[in-house]
Amino acid sequence: AENLTTRKHCHFIDGDPAAILIVEFYDDTLESVLERPQNMIRDLKKMNLGYAYPLFPAGKEYDDVWSLRKKGLGLMMGIKGEKKALSFIEDAAIPTEVLPEYIDTVLKICARHNTEVSMYAHASVGVIHVQPMLDLRQQEDIENLKRITDETFELVLKYGGSWSGEHGDGLVRSAYNERFFGPQLYQAFRGIKKLFDPENIMNPGKIVDAQTIEHNLRYGTQYRDKEVKGTFQYRAENSFSESVHMCTGVGECRKILGGTMCPSFKATRDEEHSTRGRANALRLAMSGQLDKEGLASKRLHEVLDLCLSCKACKSECPSNVDMAKMKSDVLQMYYDEHGLTVRDRLIRDSSTAASRLAGALSGIVNFVQETKLFRALMEKLAGFDRRRILPEYAAQPFYKWFEKKGNNPFKNPKKKVVLFADTYLNFHEPNVGISALQLLNSCGYEVLLANVGCCQRPKISHGFLRDAKKDATKTVEGLRKYIDQGLTIVVCEPSCASALNDDLPDLIDDEALAAQLKKHVVMIDKFLENEISDGRLNTTFESIAGNIMIHGHCHQKALYGTQGMKSMLSQGNETVSEIPSGCCGMAGSFGYETEHYELSRKIGEEILFPAVKSMKPGTTIVANGFSCRHQIHHFTGVKPKHWVEVIRAKPSA
Length: 653
Prior knowledge:
Layout: H1 4-9, H2 30-46, H3 60-70, H4 72-77, E1 84-85, H5 99-112, E2 117-122, E3 127-134, H6 139-158, H7 170-173, H8 177-181, H9 183-196, H10 240-245, H11 263-268, H12 275-286, H13 298-304, H14 312-316, H15 323-338, H16 342-348, H17 350-357, H18 362-370, H19 372-382, H20 398-404, E4 416-420, H21 423-427, H22 430-442, E5 446-450, H23 457-461, H24 465-484, E6 489-491, H25 494-503, H26 511-520, E7 521-523, H27 524-533, E8 541-543, E9 548-551, H28 554-560, H29 563-569, E10 576-578, H30 597-605, H31 608-613, E11 620-623, H32 626-636, E12 647-649
């Protein structure tokens, strides 16, 4: 399952091993810690076990090892094809002294049933997660599911292991509990269940009185997908249908604490509004089990309505399910069947409107937008909540400022970079563009401005994919001349960066150009981080804003990370911290919409708003997302800044 994660992090692997074993050592001093792996390597060589023994005491390579390990489950579950790595015998915990023999026998069982496997996890505690690859739409694989489970269970008993070492029983393993625990304990389980749940309404069929594993299947032999023609290419997933089927039901999207996924589930606690719930609804719709309307169903539209397209599931889901992409495709199908509302049209055309309303008309437009009458009319006609004030337009667009003042006579033929003029910094907040230019100049770069049109983020996120694909042609062709020169295109707005190097590459037909977009378009902080890492930039940075708290944009956290901006801000500044918040709740137009206003507030109030309101005096909140900055200001009264506004390269001594 080769993807960005493997290419970026697997450089520490030598050759093409059948397996790797990661061992981490702890001790009181660095010297004693290093002595232990060196002794282990010496012993392994003597025993002729393994062929490569790389040692990483600290730093980026050390972090990369654990990053790859962390992504292991997602890499395996994201393997293309109809057969998927399934979790049903993976939780057995076996005494380590017999673990090799157990694993060898399990692999032989799977091979005897013509089933490939993937494996990963915690050998040190006797839990190696063996995941057979099956397609449970095929009768043969349903039978293999039962046979492999039965034979593996016998092995667990033979080797004195635990049938549920880490993940519990549930529907998968409960049918084996009577044999595993014995009749006396099993009857005690039943007695406790009867005592606390006499009507058997809480999780029936789990722990006791369970059906065997081949029942309660999500698919089965009668399952059939109707043909779906999406607008996205689905190059990584093979098809829209297979993208839906990447959800294996693990339920990581139902977590309440930590991460960003899934903001609407965290706020509502409703399964329907989790990534898994949406994937199940998509599966029902495209197989004709939801209703007769298929993917254009109004009921499906309700299920997808609270998806904020935050892309967190693409990175935090073990299977890397990209619900934002699938939602966009389904919205296009919905519009084709049911037409557009006034609000839909306003969102679709927002970037065009911005280019026309910024400039000479901005003062009048901004004044009108703030009036109660205008806001009441917008609520009535388009469903934008009257408590919100739409973003202001700039008196002078950034590209016009650049033409007059720009960075001339700053010339550096050896260090050129392209700044993408996104809609937000161009027509709403040119101060962000000016700060980005000053930052890049302070690092020694000559800046070229790519004023080539919208990245198509509003159209993509709201399902106007055919329009986005058509209009993206102008934008991408405008960028091609810079790409052909081998120049890097830096972007300030995370949602624009994700549109250009994540969404558009899978929307446009030109696959070669798609690959170039992925390679040459990068967030501005990641660009500088990479330049430093690769030795092309030798400078230190300083904060110009004192104490700093960072709120990471959802797309930034999902696709690029916030480490680069934090590490550069932290140089000489020990008061930089990141708020452990998920989504801010705005998500483009979502928080402006009347029916979503209160949920938008609730999402932000989970962690973000209280953290901002409790900041010490003199602290600056940094938020790279245009929508994030407006959301924070609206509900807390605090005006955040973009990262480029609070950092500069230190002048050489």
